[in-house]
Design brief:
homotrimer; 15% strand; alpha/beta; 9-stranded mixed sheet; 275 residues; UDP-N-acetylmuramoyl-L-alanine:D-glutamate ligase
């Protein structure tokens, strides 16, 4: 895992984010904290030009609007043309038909290197592929369908299938994280429950993921797994440091942990197996 | 007060926020901190569908624009149709005719379960009802018209009258907070002056208020008072914890205090009388 | 330096910010922390009316869009008409033609009291004046052209020339900061490298700068230098306090340091010479 983070800190990839206004500040700060450089831009008239100068593009469906989806389509096509990394975070895709259709169009028009969501969001994407109905509520994962030891094999198989269908790395985050390219699957057990009691841990990970893929184009699956381990391990360190202080301090400690992590720490702290 | 917070933590109401981009992150985090679940969405094409799935709708007039006001109208009508809780936070309604007209239209088209603002903002709303001019500057309360022990009786009477006119719970926050349904008025003395030296304490309270009303539909006035006591008491605890560290630490401690509060603490800490 | 900060805290100028959604929360909080009062508003229909009631206008080119640029033009003209202070922060102006053209139009239509950027951004503005091409990447300063002891004289001369051309105070921030009105130049050595590892320190300074100019209209150059010293000295104090905790804690400590600073502290901590 060490070299993937080392590469991010050495290369400092410039990442273009078209993202929601709720967690944009967190995403910018976490990209700086992991060694990358962020730019946020969602005006259609400038998106392609900016994407063309960046190493990665991070598309996030939170607080979407019609103009922003058009901008994402333009930027995504430009990134594909330049063979830059593109990541999709389908925030709240289960919340309604607007986001579902947006996700469908983005998946049709753009090749994504990775798609990251919680299990509810990823299931909605899977249902789009199957052209059948599926439910997801809000932006948080539903308890009934989270990944557990009991349904692990089944979820790995589903993630691999979706990865093959969409020809992209699928990253499912939760108590157990899955990262698969359709053949191998990293099962990652880093993380801490407090991460789900603040907003934006998922959006932050999607930013970091984009940076890791951009800085490690030869080993995308491994780099994606390293990004997930880093965020999860940072979540553990933040819990140790902040204790029972509360969610405000936890959020600050999470950023601290990302900014202080180096390759050796990540190597020691990463907790995963390959299936 | 205990049961109203317990209900929020047990029911975890999903709250739809159409809010400003300055404090959206704080509002999302504070909703998670009090046990609710936030979704932010302001695209007209998705607002009704999202509102229909939520238990409460929080409309906040900060950083308004014409499209967002249209979205608020649609979402508010849907929430009324489904008998979901709707709260209005008329941020900076005294800052000009655009926000005043927006507030006027929202109050005409939508039934609100509660309206929360500082005394300057609430006075502007009262003036709209009286179809006469009134002044308010910026988003902060003017010193000249804040609620004090001296003008308390007069402000309670005015708040009750406005509550009757608008058929909604009126929440006026400041050094002394008033919460009234037109007949009873809670006079709440929780809080700390440092809350006014950070941005967003008011927006955060409006989010919490929506969650408390959504989780306690049978006791809206009491639930509203509990929400106000909770935020104020969290402000006191944050001041104790952060001391003279400064406004950055205070803001973090405020979020900590909300996330760590349980029903028993709120019961002990709430400081109010009923008039 | 003391009296410029004292004036901000005494007068509490209301500052209208048309700014990006990434750091809007930080800008609002830092304005409160230095004693000013913020309002954020970017709807064209309300911008002029709000600007007219404020003492200063802060225009920030981050996350721009076509409507926001139109709003900036209207608000800027109103501020000029009322002789209110106007500041431009050309965030990422080197990132593409949309922001370059926006900056060009703003500089043509509006008189700015000060323009603040990093050296890459200011060089792009200089190139606009020379109607020749220039490059700048993203929102971060390029290492190759930062201000150092070696190229100091040359950079001072260039800053003075640009200040004369644009008839505005030029503020260039980096390891060494320059503040010039075309004849005198403050060379400021406050600051800490950790400021560039969080997002928004520049945007925060532009907010503070607007407040200092608004509260000190008789001594704009000195007030601008005081604002830059204050932010830089706060950055030093934050580094002392947060140590190696990481970028989350550093960001909180930076806000703390601004909120705790008084005129005497600034007087003692300011580190500058005049060239």
């Amino acid at each position: 895992m060490k070299k993937y983070l080392d590469n991010v800190r050495r290369i400092a990839p410039l990442i273009h984010n078209i993202t929601n206004y709720v967690t944009a500040n967190d995403v910018a700060n976490v990209l700086l904290a992991c060694g990358a450089s962020p730019i946020m831009a969602d005006e259609e008239a400038e998106a392609e030009e900016i994407t063309a100068q960046c190493m990665g593009l991070n598309l996030n469906l939170g607080t979407p609007n019609q103009k922003k989806i058009q901008t994402m389509l333009k930027a995504g096509k430009m990134a594909n043309k330049r063979k830059h990394v593109v990541v999709l975070d389908p925030v709240g895709v289960g919340a309604g038909s607007f986001r579902r259709q947006a996700a469908e169009e983005l998946l049709k028009e753009i090749h994504f290197d990775a798609v990251r969501g919680n299990i509810s969001e990823i299931r909605v994407l899977a249902s789009l592929c199957e052209s059948e109905e599926n439910s997801g509520k809000g932006v948080d994962a539903d308890n009934t369908d989270r990944v557990t030891e009991e349904n692990l094999a089944q979820n790995i198989a589903a993630a691999k299938m979706l990865s093959q269908q969409l020809k992209t790395i699928i990253v499912i985050t939760g108590a157990i994280d899955l990262v698969t390219d359709g053949s191998k699957c990293y099962v990652i057990k880093n993380g801490n429950p407090q991460m789900s009691r603040i907003t934006g841990a998922g959006c932050q990970l999607s930013g970091i993921l984009t940076a890791f893929l951009a800085a490690n184009p030869e080993d995308k699956l491994q780099a994606a797994a390293a990004a997930v381990c880093m965020m999860g391990y940072a979540g553990e360190l933040a819990a140790e440091k902040s204790g029972q202080s509360g969610s405000g301090t936890y959020r600050v400690s999470l950023m601290d942990a990302v900014s202080c992590m180096d390759g050796d720490m990540l190597e020691r702290g990463a907790c995963y197996e390959i299936r």
